[in-house]
Amino acid sequence: MTPPGPALRSGTALLLALLPAVLTGCSSTVEGAATAAPADPTPSSPAELERLLVTDVPSGLARVADADLTPPAGEKSAEDVAGYADDPDREREVLEDYGYRYGWERFWGAGPGPLVSVFVDQFVTRAGAGAYARDLAANDAELYGAVLRDEPPHLPGGCRLLVLDEADPGSGMSGPAAFAWCAHGVFSVAVTAVAGSVEAATDEVHAVVAAQLERLPPS
């Protein structure tokens, strides 16, 4: 499998690019546990994948409408993902090597404060999903110069965790943040939370990852 170049789509980089466009007039959500549901068969289309994404987050942040972000969140094709890179043609080749099929992105938050993002991407094979999740995690660890934790406590096997202890104005992070990347069957799941403390961000990531993996078909 072709290793990713530096332009490989980074969930963190995309999150930061979207932050200035998050609007404050979003619909409210219900505070409580992240919403889970019985797992469905493996999706055969982006629309079926969308139905498997979590709909609420424990912090009660309002969900951001896909169209309120630039570029829009929601359905993602390989062409969309490649478009985030400085070299889209090279990125398309990398995605083909991973066996990328399609993905879906969802955000919660308002303005530069607390924020949660969930990216779920589907691949042709388990190996492709695992390699993609691993390489995204390594990419962001290098970006922040932070230590990546493989299979950390409170997350399932196949997950990686990265924690930023404080705000990083240079990158646009408004507070402490936690990031998790997990491979689950033919899916790659990436969850990011920015909160008022490391503990709050990490707890949010743990809860959202658990709920999201529960919604996916068994690995």
From TrEMBL:
Record key words, sorted: Signal
This protein's record includes keyword Signal: yes
Chain segments carrying region Disordered: 67-88
Range of residues in the leader sequence: 1-32
Superkingdom of this protein's organism: Bacteria
Protein name: Lipoprotein
Species whose genome carries this gene: Geodermatophilus sabuli
Lineage, broadest ranks: Bacteria, Bacillati, Actinomycetota, Actinomycetes, Geodermatophilales
